[in-house]
Amino acid sequence: MAEHRSMQRAALLDAARTLLSEGGTEALTFPALAERTGLARSSVYEYFRSRAAVVEELCEVDFPVWAAEVSAAMATAGGPETKVEAYVRKQLELVGDRRHRAVVAISASELDSGAREKIRAAHGGLVAMIVEALGELGHGQPRLAAMLVQGVVDAAVRRVELGAAEDPEQIAEAAVGMALRGVCG
Question: Is it the case that residue 50 has pLDDT exceeding 90?
């Protein structure tokens, strides 16, 4: 029985990712989750009390996976400069991933304070990954620099998602350049 419930919960989360990535937060409804999973709508409420609860669980499940992929890319990099580059590039590579599209849709929506706090904490953990590398590069305020680098990454992600005129690789090159050298470096 526990295994069946676990599988149903996983199916609901997968359906939620799909709905969010295809249609944004408006698409994430219990009737849509029920339809995607073949469950009765009342059964969806047995797993999640609200849409916010679905969002919170997606954050708990998907952010660590995303962060682990970024961390793994940084771990294979040589020095601090290549770690910063890996940090930027890996996040931009993940733009097409359903988990990322779902997280972006979640971030753009009206969330309760619990879900917002989970997103903030997850982003904080992501930013913390490059603080050491920025310190090794000699930055006097590596934590501040890490937050600003993440801002560059976030802007680059939005540019890629908008289907900007630039090729995604051009956007990645510009983001890496700004992260490593700043605007005039």
Answer: no
